[in-house]
Amino acid sequence: MALGRREFLKNAGTCVGGASAIALGFAPPQAFAQETRQYKLLRAKETRNNCTYCSVGCGLLMYSLGDGAKNAKPSIFHIEGDPDHPVSRGSLCPKGAGLVDFIHSEGRLHYPSYRAPGSKEWQRISWEEATDRIARLLKDDRDKNFIEKNEKGETVNRWLTTGMLASSAASNETGLLDFKFARSMGILALDCQARLCHGPTVSALAPTLGRGAMTNNWVDIKNANVVLIMGGNPAEAHPVGFKWVMEAKIRNGAKVMVVDPRFNRSAAVADFYAPIRAGSDGAFLLGVINYLLTHDQIQHEYVKSYTNAPFVVREDFSFHDGLFSGYDPDKRSYDKTSWAYERDAQGYAVVDPTLQNPRCVINLLRQHAARYTPEVVAQITGTPEKDFLHVCETLAATSVPHLTSTILFALGWTHHTNGTQIIRTAAMIQLLLGNVGMAGGGLNALRGHSNIQGYTDLGLLSLRLPGYMNLPKDSQQTLDSYMQAVVPPADEPEQVNYWHNTPKFFVSLMKTLWGEHATPANSWGYDWLPKWDRSYDMLAYFEMMYQGKVNGYIAQGFNPLAAMPDKNRMRDALSKLRFLITMDPLDTETSNFWQNEGTYNDVKPEDIQTEVFRLPASCFAEENGSIVNSARWLQWHFEGASPPGEAWNDGHIIGTIFTKLRALYAKEGGICPDPVLNMQWNYKEPEDPTPEEVAKEANGYALADITDDKGNIVVRRGELLPDFSVMKDDGSTASYCWIFAGSWTEAGNQMARRDNTDTGLGATPGWAWAWPANRRILYNRASLDVQGRPWDPKRQIIAWDGHHWSGADVPDYPVTSPPNSGIGPFIMHSEGVGLLFAGGDKLVDGPFPEHYEPTETPVVASALGKTTLRNPAARFFADEKPRMGGPEQYPYVATTYSITELFRHWTKHSRLNAIMQPEQFVEIGDKLADKLGIHAGDMVRVSSHRGYIEAKAVVTKRLKRLNVMGKDLDQVGVPCHWGFKGATRKGYLANTLTPAIGDANSQTPEFKAFLVNVEKV
Ligand code: SF4
């Protein structure tokens, strides 16, 4: 019998005696002599964890030695894939395989250090000195600049001169502490990596489907009949998740199609590849919608019953010359009054089930998309028309009820001024095909960083609260006015309209934040939340920083100098700070922004008066806690070793600074001390809260006995909440993040569960815990018709048993509402259906998607014949205009991307990964290389209007020359992993090239399409 490694270890107990006997000299002299060498993992401690890089969330087994002997500190010496993990099943990609080198990287920080204003050096300081000084700086800046009232005399309680970036790989428990810390002080400029990656996914999917997250999950991809990969390259960026694409292809006969500017590694194993001009995906997808509607290849019954296709739109809504009705060119924004349904006498939306009314959504959409003919799409995108039609035909084949396509995308769609609308178009395609809610269907937004889904869920974005609630703004001076604005009225009678529960979620949050100090008399501490007058997203805040309006900044697990666009300008912005605090396991470019690194970072340290604190943090392997993978699974991980040297866990750092700050307020007083002093921080050790107590706080408690409608007690006072359905708006429940309720209940830590039983179609509800309510496929009621019959009996995931809904997955529907109840499956929407027309305030740039060119584009006249070429609602700072280039000077389209062996700017600190990809390169098509006389391996300079990088040229056929609007167009590929710190050779930060302009809805920067020139050096 061949034993696997796991079986071997299980049987190890019986083997030890034998091994010892061999070691004692009873071994046969020859044949078994080698076995005296002990198995390398035998005496090791095994600890479970998850990979810290991408959000596939692969399971890890970490092995450490140092078994409690005196002075023997455990040290992790081996990491391998967890074979029991239902997604990764023992696999790790080259990034995960190098994790030991990350933990032991020479770039790890071991003790706090300090850089004095104008200094050229770091100096070591103690934690006490560092945290004392930081608390002092924060308090002084806050007291001096805190704004209690705005010009109108409205209470706003905000602090704008210091901001904070929260990590994307730290645990949820750290994120909760980050939020309490920052918001108690009134910080509005609080952001996380989601701003720079999947912001547009949330802005697109929430208005279209109800929630802004990946609809299905990694394993479910295997159920698809067609896989469209566009705006992402999972074979490189999510390699282990990609195995489920191969599973669909090999075992389910799925057709895999890739549409991408490069013939990438996903394309290499796909059935079909189509090239496309970076930045034109919106036109391609609108062309698909036109194809589906003109060829009548939609899932009719689904579209009629489960989308707002039959809803009738107001007469005054219109679209002309690239602009929707209500546009104000001076403000670059829309009055959205006309983006609405007709209303009946009761105020409900008018619906025409016959779809005959020309103002029905489906008819307006048909008219809107009709401009995107195959010929026009080919002209805009450069995709050959036959390739485009092949994609259309293959997708259209899944409009029948028993076939599904899934769409996989990532930053290739988000990193555009038009990112939200690109993703929304894809979601609309899936609604038209009847693929949302189906096993093997949906919109699989492949999140990047290991916990960026969690940090988005936790509300660590400038204008958000946990659980996708909004932070109140200036005009919402009372809790009532806030609720009036955020609780959606009913659009249709009898729909679930789940957001009508917002008051329960909001009050439960406030009870978590301010505990006993949150009372009905003070509207649960409503005034203590900072109110906003405008967005303080990262782009906006760095603009303020550049203008000298920001004094302090905290970068926790974040390297903004490498991550933000237009690096040289960002460096100049950081130079204007009075103080910068970094918390990171690694020595980042950001903490060293003041160092002269020659051509890579050409600054004069003596001119930079910023004092910098570099605080060493633990990494994933050195803490307990939970992270959320792309599929919304909260997975609990365990500490395998202590952090190196004097490094602290992030919670310890935040807890210590906050405790010192509160002590200063208690002793000295200061401006608006109440939200700081009243913030509930009742952890056993306030300086170092444990992840376990914080995780329970995120789930929430009953503060009084909770009763049902009949008066029966369902949760006793002091017990953990079983789910969010028991939450109250009377202060009797506390929960930090309503969608996490159920993650740690009286039954224990649900996130640590490890039952990988497949309950059907690859669902493993016993493994970890998924929000909301442990559902693995969102909107799964839409996988059955109105009568409750599955569209495809082979992929039935829930069923009605005469009394309840149940099945392989948790129903996304009121569990006792029978078929034919009239309740729609998109329960978060007031209409109960998916939205092809997203009116009201949902989007800033139009209720239908429209293709707009990137800010820097080679196209000078629209193939659609409109004069509005670029997104008219994208925010444009006046200072940025001179930093944009045109096609005369910069004739090539560049796009940034990631490669398999490296993860952003982290893995360059890991020796194994640095060996695999030691040196910076750019990809250039062979025809462009011929034209410029460049050979493989030559050094080239790639320049934009903002700066240049120099790197080795990889000359390739992977980047085809395209024909766009009758002209040849070449594209340049710029991987984004190197910098001036780490174990690789020094390189340029790729963001030196990219423009500082963001998606109109989420302000996520346009990293994926900009103009450059290329020269041989
Ligand atoms: S980087 Fe992603 S795919 Fe690779 S091992 Fe880590 S979690 Fe898995």
UniProtKB/TrEMBL annotation:
Main location: periplasm
GO cellular component, one term: periplasmic space
SMART domains from the UniProt entry: Molybdop_Fe4S4
CDD domains per UniProt: MopB_CT_Formate-Dh-Na-like, MopB_Formate-Dh-Na-like
Every 4Fe-4S Mo/W bis-MGD-type domain range: 44-107
SUPFAM superfamilies: ADC-like, Formate dehydrogenase/DMSO reductase, domains 1-3
Necessary cofactors: [4Fe-4S] cluster; Mo-bis(molybdopterin guanine dinucleotide)
Protein location: Periplasm
PROSITE patterns referenced in this protein's UniProt entry, alphabetically: 4FE4S_MOW_BIS_MGD, MOLYBDOPTERIN_PROK_1, TAT
Keywords, sorted A to Z: 4Fe-4S, Iron, Iron-sulfur, Metal-binding, Molybdenum, Oxidoreductase, Periplasm, Selenocysteine, Signal
Gene Ontology MF term list: 4 iron, 4 sulfur cluster binding; electron transfer activity; formate dehydrogenase (cytochrome-c-553) activity; formate dehydrogenase (NAD+) activity; molybdenum ion binding; molybdopterin cofactor binding
Annotated GO biological process: anaerobic respiration
Family: Belongs to the prokaryotic molybdopterin-containing oxidoreductase family.
PANTHER family attached to this UniProt entry: FORMATE DEHYDROGENASE-O MAJOR SUBUNIT, TUNGSTEN-CONTAINING FORMYLMETHANOFURAN DEHYDROGENASE 2 SUBUNIT B
Protein name: Formate dehydrogenase-N subunit alpha
